[in-house]
Design goal:
single chain; seven-stranded mixed sheet; FAD/NAD(P)-binding domain; 12 helices; alpha+beta
């Protein structure tokens, strides 16, 4: 035992020093770290699991939606789109395909296991140091400036010092630990959008599913492109209203929703719903995981018994953790509001755009409330949404940027998180290089750097 302690003490005697420290290795954190590394910053990425990908891999959030407006104009590019192209090149994604649910114009299927390895390859190409199996539980401040993060790992405590930090934890953990103001849930009662335990099924006869849809169009979402369905590859299905209503499962949801792939007989089911629990409370999370897994088994059994095309199917995988739509988010120098989204508002300090509608899964009821983006079908996300109040040398990217409860229901989607993550990482690298705080950075310099990496800001 003494020998082991000595070895670990020697290994972690000195702090890890970096220009940019990114906490949280989900889609936002991956893109933040790559962006920072490509701009020459010594970058460290801290991830609690033994793999990267966050909700996309641990929670089976699939597919990525959406890179386009409802009319089909692409508004998210950059590192996010580069990842898609590289996945396509190795047969791990078909790229952007039509959404046969009809909710958005395109969705982007991908192979999560390939994404895990490709992401690490890209991090290494950018010179990023990945520290996995590590959880940040303390920060050190020098005045109002975050100076260091402490992680707990299998090897003990590790101090990581940086010039600029990026919070891509999804839960604003770093901002919360540093004392930056955060908020959670809707204004009237603090309730958040429900959690969902995603699961996969194999052995599905998708041709039979499509035949049933063509013969029974009224049993599916009103925007399903039934008239085009024979020519389109089936990418997603929302409906089976008759079967779902007859089953009366104890799940507060009003239809079945699943997406196809990545294998030809495979679907990802997004139908469970766990409400009224707090994704930042460990006891609530423990209960949510159990309830979600029970619901997954109930839904899978129902689908096998009742849905055409699922007669020979089986449950093949359940998420390593429950999918979380909403927890804490920072209170930033600007808070994106629902009116900004719906009106398709433009901002001078735009660092990302999105064409995904407001998509609120009811915190207490059965339904989903959608509000569509007007104008050209996209809205801007301003740089100020990435800058927390009160704490300096800290940025946020991904799900925990500064938004209202309603606006979060669009910015939380993966491609948007990838885009804001890239912006946060690039801003952190530029600020570190210039020796300034991120809020002092000329946004035009940041925008130029983002465009150089393929970001779409117009």
């Amino acid at each position: 035992m003494k020998l082991d302690q000595t070895r670990h003490e020697k290994r972690y005697k000195e702090p890890v020093a970096a220009d940019v420290v990114v906490v949280g290795g989900g889609p936002a954190g991956i893109n933040a770290a790559i962006a920072a590394g490509r701009l020459g910053a010594r970058t460290v990425l801290i991830e609690r699991y033994g793999f990267v990908g966050g909700m996309s891999t641990a929670a089976l959030v699939y597919p990525w939606m959406t890179f386009h407006t409802v009319e089909g104009k692409q508004v998210i590019g950059g590192i996010a789109d580069e990842i898609v192209r590289r996945l396509q090149a190795i047969g791990a994604s078909p790229g952007h395909v039509r959404d046969t649910v009809g909710f958005v114009h395109t969705i982007t299927p991908y192979h999560p296991e390939v994404y895990k390895t490709l992401a690490v390859d890209m991090l290494r190409e950018a010179g990023v140091k990945l520290i996995a199996h590590s959880f940040v539980d303390r920060v050190e401040l020098e005045g109002d400036r975050i100076a260091a993060a402490w992680v707990t790992s299998k090897s003990g405590k590790l101090e990581i010092r940086g010039k600029v930090f990026v919070d891509t934890t999804g839960d604003a953990d770093l901002a919360y630990l540093s004392g930056a103001p955060t908020r959670q849930g809707r204004d009237e009662d603090g309730r958040t959008q429900p959690m969902t335990m995603k699961f996969r099924m194999r052995g599905v006869d998708l041709a039979k599913v499509k035949q049933y849809m063509l013969a029974n169009p009224n049993e599916f979402y009103r925007k399903t492109p039934i008239d085009e369905l024979e020519q389109l590859p089936l990418s997603g299905v929302m409906g089976f209203f008759k079967q779902w209503n007859a089953a009366q499962l104890p799940i507060n949801r009003d239809q079945v929703l699943f997406f196809t792939g990545p294998e030809p007989d495979e679907v990802l089911v997004n139908t469970t719903r766990v409400q009224g629990l707090d994704g930042t409370d460990v006891e609530d999370l423990t209960e949510a995981e159990h309830l979600g897994r029970k619901q997954a088994q109930q839904v899978a059994d129902f689908m096998i018994k009742e849905l055409p095309g699922f007669e020979k199917a089986s449950l093949s995988q359940v998420g390593a953790q429950i999918g979380i739509r909403e927890t804490r988010r920072i209170v930033g120098r600007y808070t994106l509001e629902s009116s900004d989204v719906v009106e398709g508002r433009r901002f001078d300090d735009v660092i990302a755009r999105s064409g995904y509608p407001i998509d609120i899964h009811d915190p207490s009821g059965k339904g989903v409330v959608a509000s569509w983006v007007q104008g050209d079908g996209a809205y801007d996300i301003p740089y100020r949404c990435l800058l927390p109040q009160k704490v300096s040398h800290l940025l946020s990217g991904g799900r925990c940027i500064s938004t209202s409860h309603e606006a979060l229901a669009t910015t939380r989607l993966t491609p948007s998180c990838m885009a804001t993550g890239q912006a946060a990482g690039a801003a952190a690298a530029l600020a570190a290089k210039l020796g300034i705080a991120p809020h002092e950075l000329d946004v035009k310099v940041l925008q130029e750097a983002l465009r150089a990496e393929g970001a779409l800001l117009e």
